[in-house]
Amino acid sequence: MVSALRNVFVIHPGGLGDVLLAVPTLQVIRSRYPKHDLVLLAGTEVGRLLQQCGVVDRFLPMESGHLATLFIGPPQLSPAIAEILKRCDLAVGWLSDSDGALLGTLREGGVPYAIVEAPMSGIRRHQSERFLASVERVVGADHEGPVILTLPESFLQNSLANLKRVGLEEGMDYVVCHPGSGSLHKCVSADRWLDILRGCQNRGFLPFIIVGPADEKAVQTLGEEGLKKVLIVRPQSLGVLAGILAQARAYIGHDSGVTHLSALLGIPTVAMFGPTDPVQWAPRGPYVSVVTGEACSCVGWDAVRTCREKTCLQVPVRGVLHGLDGLLARYRQVTNS
């Protein structure tokens, strides 16, 4: 069904973590255009999640080829995109457009304010601030502090059903552990993970491992022996994963989209960083602890891939568990008051 409202159109082809880092800016845009539909062109899973959580009103799946038609030009626009541009008062594209093709299409489509900018620069600045900076001349730069994503009740119920299938019951004190990431070069060693899992168990928590399609290799490195007493959960969708995270006592992971999701849900989140810069990429939220090894000396990602020492990923287990203890103490003080 086509909306009769005017709209704001946002294009974001990034991965899960990158899109989630833009949520504070999406909320600023919504506050400046409260009577508009906020339409997001992004990956299906994250677009659906943000729509169901009320961050955006509608989404178009990146996988459907809409973005390609925007680069070709107005004559080739998909009907859905043409309809959006016809009623659009602001369009924002967070991607590279070196020849100006996308910006030209938006302007030819009649959009009065069109911004296309890859939110990257040589300045050491957090990525969420870069998203906001790209649109501040139109929407301003003020926002109301930490953003917490609120899930529909159906997400929570679906996640409970998923957990029951592997033997977890409602009310259990569980800690979600995510040993994977978008790259194995961001992941700490198996022996550190096993010590972290034991540390959670010694604190009376039930740790379990979540595994997505890109995480199988990371889980394999833990070995069968180390996983004998640890449950493994494979969420069926991003919505189920979000529901699982929302009901956890805490979360431990690397620099990954799942870690950003946990932080955005307001869950006590310990994020282990290695070759990526936490000043630019750390998750943000009221209950986040970032733990690092030594500063990474590699120049460029090719050097990261070939590095054998990986001292930046020698994250102290004691630091991870200390961060967990501190977050849980603060979290209890707030939620029990």
Write the CATH architecture name of the largest domain. 3-Layer(aba) Sandwich
Q: Share of helix among residues?
A: 40-55%
Please provide the count of β strands: 11
CATH superfamily of the largest domain: Glycogen Phosphorylase B
Biggest sheet details: 6 strands, parallel
Structure class: alpha/beta
Q: How are the secondary structure elements laid out?
A:
Blueprint: E1 7-11, H1 16-21, H2 23-32, E2 37-42, H3 44-52, E3 58-61, H4 66-72, H5 79-86, E4 88-93, H6 101-108, E5 113-116, H7 127-139, H8 153-164, E6 174-178, H9 190-202, E7 206-210, H10 216-220, H11 223-226, E8 231-233, H12 238-246, E9 250-254, H13 257-264, E10 269-273, H14 278-281, E11 288-292, H15 301-306, H16 317-335
Parallel strand pairs: 1-2, 1-4, 2-3, 4-5, 6-7, 6-9, 7-8, 9-10, 10-11
Can you describe this structure?
- By secondary structure, the protein is an alpha/beta fold.
- It has 2 domains: 7-139, Glycogen Phosphorylase B (Rossmann fold, 3-Layer(aba) Sandwich); 153-335, Glycogen Phosphorylase B (Rossmann fold, 3-Layer(aba) Sandwich), CATH 3.40.50.2000.
- The protein has 16 helices and 11 strands.
- The chain has helices at residues 16-21, 23-32, 44-52, 66-72, 79-86, 101-108, 127-139, 153-164, 190-202, 216-220, 223-226, 238-246, 257-264, 278-281, 301-306, 317-335; strands at residues 7-11, 37-42, 58-61, 88-93, 113-116, 174-178, 206-210, 231-233, 250-254, 269-273, 288-292.
- The strands form 2 sheets. It has a 6-stranded parallel beta sheet.
- Strand 2, helix 3 and strand 3 form a beta-alpha-beta unit.
- Helix 2 (23-32) runs parallel beside helix 7 and helix 8 (153-164) packs across helix 12 (238-246).
- The longest helix has 19 residues, at 317-335.
- It is globular and about 60 Å long.
- The termini are far apart.
- The model has no long low-confidence stretch (mean pLDDT 89).
